[in-house]
Amino acid sequence: MYGKTNQAQHPPRERDACTVVPELQRLQYFFGQALSVSDFRSEQQYFREKLKLHNRCFHGYGTVCGLRVEAALAEEICETEHDRRRRELEAQINAVENELAEAHAAGDVQAEEKLKAELEALRQRLECLPKGCPPPPLRPKIIVDCGIAVDCEGNEIIVRRPQTIDLWALLSPEDQRKLECEPAMTYLSVCFCERPVSPVRAVRTDTCDSSADCLYGRMQDSFRFHISLTTPKLDERCETCCTACDDPCLLLARIDCVRAEGQIEPWQIHNHVRRLLAKYETTRIIGVNWTHGATYSVEEADRLLGGQFAGGQLAARHRRFMGH
Q1: Which tens digit of pLDDT belongs to each residue from 227-240?
Q2: Sequence-ordered alpha helix ranges (H) in the chain
Q3: For the chain: N or C, fewer Cβ within 10 A?
Q4: What 3-state class would DSSP assign to 196?
Q5: CA-to-CA distance for 182 and 62, rounded, in angstroms?
Q6: pTM of the entire predicted model
């Protein structure tokens, strides 16, 4: 018996320098020292690079917890007062048309004339109502649960609240055109990014630097989501510590048969493609050719093993082992 695995075959290790390991320098304080903005930024950078180095070299990268992708519930279209009135008038017109057909079949001329007048009045009232806007197209949406991850550069990605994502809005114009032609497989990734917050005005500006009137006093660790129709490249590095990664975005899920319009169903979402936090990609069994708990004969076991003991050799060995 055997199990199929999706473990990557790593190429031979190249003897390259550890180019992604930064030069770590920290400030040496002394009395009378003049400190500038670059000094304080380098102080922050020292500890940030130390943390990122520790994350990727001691823990690896991948999803730590949470961040499961689920299908979003269908949105309810709000009905306005004009929509409600239009729906009621259309129902009344339909009922009067049925009564008119019955009166015409019975030959009741008086009732037929009365129903025609009532029908004309209802149609005029319907024509006077403002025409409602057509409902917007139902775009495919998903929900990403809160959680924590570490990307291949050592950055910590923290999603504090569930996020509803419009797949169509995040696709590139080229991918949108492809999706309009036919359904396609999409890939959802999460990426680390920094976001400036807390705008302030500088009390004093550097005469040598052209600074804006309004600056940002803080940088917030944040994240963004990336949607693509292209399969992400498999990480084939043997060592995730000393060599740079090609794409720092972390794959979360594969979503099958996505259309330009329509709701995403749970069966379309595959969370198993994500990488869990580890220094090396773990081997996963993606298929087996036996049934757990079942009983197999010697010949059946031989076929499951690939038939290497075909021709009764396995059965003969079994009999000799059992003393027959």
Answers
A1: 999 999 888 887 77
A2: 37-54, 81-106, 109-128, 167-170, 173-181, 298-304, 313-322
A3: C
A4: strand
A5: 32
A6: 0.66
